[in-house]
Amino acid sequence: MFDRHRVGVRRKVFSKVENEKTIKSDVEQTRQANDDAGLAISRRQFSLGLSGILLAGTVLEPTEHNTLSVLAAKTSSLSAQPGPRKLTPHAFDQPQYVLSGTTASVWSPDSQHIATFHENIVTLYNANTGKSELTYSKHTDEILTVKWSADSKYLVSSGFDHIVHVWDAALGQTLTMYKGHTAIVRDTVWSPNQQYLASAGYDKTVQVWEAFTGRMVVTYSGHAAEIYALMWSPDGRLIASTDLQNKMMIWRVI
Q1: What is the pLDDT of residues 184-226, one digit of tens each?
Q2: pLDDT for residue 6 is more than 60
Q3: pTM check: above 0.85
Q4: What does the alpha-carbon distance between residue 23 and residue 18 come to, in Å, rounded to a whole number?
Q5: SS3 for the chain, per residue?
């Protein structure tokens, strides 16, 4: 009786152990399958486009039709992106037009006009046709610099007559004549907001003034040599001036 009972208990224990082994084996197989699937998905994610396309956690093996559709979509999206046109060497080996009798020139920011100057005359040309549209001849001596305003509506010019002219690009009418300098005005620069101008030259001063009234705001002195170049910082805070002794000075405006 005792032995029969012991055998029954052992059979139950053995059966339980076997069930546990089976369950453990099933769990291990499931875990391995999940790991393999995860590895496969991550590999496919890594090599997207080569072994499959992952969409919302589902891997779709590419067929010929799907591959062509994807390539077409990619090509379409690339061609739709904005960018400069491709340049072709020697595509245009002849000038569009030739402008004679110019010392220097400057493009308008909107690319619609070219301002050229020679001696005491500024001429505006249509950039598309090369035809002269306007001539400004109010200076009494040779011009050294011409600058466009950022909106392409106004120009400032200066030179040997010690006077800075601000004028309307469409009408050619003088708006301001600034006479604060006592020598050649070598360079000018617009403020970023177009409300002010800075001018400098051979009197060794940098002068800041209201562009459309001519009212002087401030004069900076400190250069020991003639000034030939000006820059206004994009944030409007600083002006840089460079003289003929290769010295640059930075001035605080605001």
Answers
A1: 999 999 999 999 999 999 999 999 999 999 999 999 999 999 9
A2: no
A3: no
A4: 9
A5: CHHHHHHHHHHHHHHHHHHHHHHHHHHHHHHHHHHHHHHHHHHHHHCCCCCCEEECCEEECCCHHHHHHHHHHHHHHHHHCCCCCCCCCCCCCCCCCCCCCCCEEEECCCCCEEEEEECCEEEEEECCCCCEEEEECCCCCCEEEEEECCCCCEEEEEECCCCEEEEECCCCCEEEEECCCCCCEEEEEECCCCCEEEEEECCCEEEEEECCCCCEEEEEECCCCCEEEEEECCCCCEEEEEECCCCEEEEECC
Whole-angstrom Cα distance, residue 97 to residue 215?
41
* First-last CA distance in the chain: 109
Which residue in 188, 99, 112, 204 sits closest to 153, CA to CA? 112
Delineate the domains of the chain, giving CATH numbers in brackets. Answer: 2-77 (no CATH), 104-252 (2.130.10.10)
**114 exposed, middle or buried (CB, 10 Å; 0-12, 13-18, 19+)?**
middle
pLDDT, tens digit, for every residue of 17-42?
455 555 455 545 655 555 554 444 44
Structure confidence by residue, pLDDT tens digits, 111-167: 999 999 999 999 999 999 999 999 999 999 999 999 999 999 999 999 999 999 999
